[in-house]
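User: I'm putting together notes for a lab meeting next week and I want to include a structural view of one of the chains we've been expressing. I don't have a solved structure, so I'd like a prediction I can at least talk through. The sequence is below, exactly as it appears in our construct file.
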Amino acid sequence: MEIISYVKTVAREGEQLADTAERAGTDALVPTCPQWRVADLLRHTGSVHRWATGYVAQGLTERAPFPEAPELVGAELLAWFREGHATLVRTLTGTSADAQCWTFLPTAPPSPLAFWARRQAHETTVHRMDAEAALGVPFGPVDPAFAEDGVDELLTGFHARPQSRVRTAEPRVMRVRASDTGAVWTVHLSQEPARTVRGSADGTDGAEADCTLTGEAAWLYSALWNRQPLTGPGVTGDAELARLWVETAGI
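Assistant: Thanks for the context. Below is the predicted structure for the 251-residue chain, given as structure tokens.
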């Protein structure tokens, strides 16, 4: 995906998040993030937006402290969120594609601007789902190509890091198939961080799967981010691996 597409997604999803959060009320519980209320969701996402803006705007080349959110409530908190979101969109829009700054995933795009635009597009989309859960409405649509990209970032980026807790005592294999886009990932699990291989011509890397997750990219996106149950007919083989994911894959 092009940088401009990610930036447009950040803009749209952030606006939807704020509007949905306002309808739900900042005191509403967020079922997809236990122990959070909408106020916590806004503080977290607003801080992430400011954190990302700092790297891009200032060209920071080392990890910076995560900013603390103010103890605002109600309309003031929503205004604070919207202000930070708008600043992030302006920064991503106005920064040169060859700008340099710190990034943090092993499969980060070569352009730091592309990395932060992509990361904030998915960050904001997932938390838009949290706002919808708080309001009690179905998740809004996610474009299949964007959802595939988000699954790829999650599997090959986040869970390739030492911080990932998705580990198995013995080597196991989980295969993920997007039925609408054709994308396939083979996730090799062990006592080390997961090693994920994008599908080859035959749809696998030759490894036999212990558990297979099959569904539209948007379902895989929300389920692998633990925003809806990773259960049902799309889960075949050893369901214990799916349960392991639910229990340990939180970012």
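A couple of points you could mention at the meeting. The CA atoms of residues 3 and 114 lie 5 Å apart. The chain has a mean pLDDT of 96.

User: Perfect, that's what I needed.
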